Task: structure prediction
Amino acid sequence: MAWVTQTLSSSLGRKVIMSLTGLFLSSFLIIHMAGNLQLFKGDGGRSFNEYTYFMTHNPLIMTVSYLLYSSILVHALMAFILTRYNQSSRPVKYAYSKPEANSDWSSRNMGILGTVLLLFILIHMRTFWYEMHFGSVPMAEYDGKEYKDLYSVVQAAFGELWYVVLYVVCMVALGYHMAHGFQSGFQTLGIRHRKYTPIIESLGKYFFAIIVPAAFASMPIYVYLQVHHFI
Result:
């Protein structure tokens, strides 16, 4: 197990772990987004409730969910350790520098963006995950089978304007985080090629930084408008 200690104690090893967990979390975003698109079905929440039932009763998915929770914690921990290490190795700032000339805004503020997203995840899990497992969630019946009516929990949360605004702002933070983080993960792992790198960069800048956050942001807006009978 010496390699584990060496990996965790080296800057490169921590970066590799952060990259692997970050890319795993990126793949989860796609699955989570696809599932939550059931909110747009307009069937009173049936598709969404059936989807959440499947996700919480499938043994394989339940096992992967623990890997997901671990990845979030490890990713955040590695980011914190690396940030502290970088700060300690450069205790005095350069007298003159123009970081904006060598990097974009998102790459210079990954720590702030990551902190915002971590706080959002905690709030999000308290609102939905905790309620699903420990809250008093009403039941819904479809074809003689009972399901937890998590759609009603979504309506209650997204019916609050402050939560919708928070959600949208955090999706903007997610977009900026992914704009740099996705391609950076591949770069750290040494996956660079003149043929594939442009594709990876485009996926990061357009799919993960724009399409995915926009899809997530549209969900609370849609439910809010629906709850308050604007649509």
About this structure: The chain has one domain: 2-88+107-227.
